[in-house]
Write a structure and sequence with these properties.
There is one protein chain. By secondary structure, this protein is an all-alpha fold. The chain is built from five helices and no strands.
Length: 137
């Protein structure tokens, strides 16, 4: 039934032959016949089932794509997180190194200034402790 040409299906339903149907309509009117324009209930059911199947397949594809994208995003986020942690560790290391260098220079400067201004010899450990106490307030 579905592989037949439209006119043959209409001919089978309306009973037309030789360009005239049972009511005597001509071929042009017959080509606009309702049975040719509206699919049968069985065909509508098949079309609806095919649409539903296509929608289901599309939904499954969307879900699979979303899962795949989510996995890729998570993997990229984890990779970026590792890079951020490594960068933060380098920054902390550089900060601690800079802070230690500043404290050492400040302690030496403090020891020399106290010695020049007051004539008191200050131990480098005492000067470092005083500078550290002032810088970490």
């Amino acid at each position: 039934m579905f592989g037949e040409p439209a006119h043959q299906r209409c001919t089978d339903r309306c009973g037309s032959s030789n360009g005239k149907d049972q009511k005597g309509q001509d071929a042009a009117t017959h080509l606009r016949c309702r049975c040719q324009l509206q699919p049968s209930a069985g065909k509508r059911f098949e079309q609806d089932a095919a649409r539903a199947e296509a929608a289901r397949i599309a939904a499954e594809a969307k879900q699979a794509s979303a899962r795949d994208t989510e996995a890729k995003v998570k993997k990229a986020a984890d990779k970026i997180g590792l890079k951020v942690e490594a960068a933060e560790a380098k920054i902390r290391e550089a900060l601690n190194s800079a802070r230690a260098e500043i404290e050492a220079v400040a302690a030496e400067a403090t020891r020399e200034m106290v010695g020049r201004l007051t004539g008191i010899a200050v131990d480098s450990k005492d000067a470092a402790a005083a500078v550290k106490a002032e810088l970490n307030v």
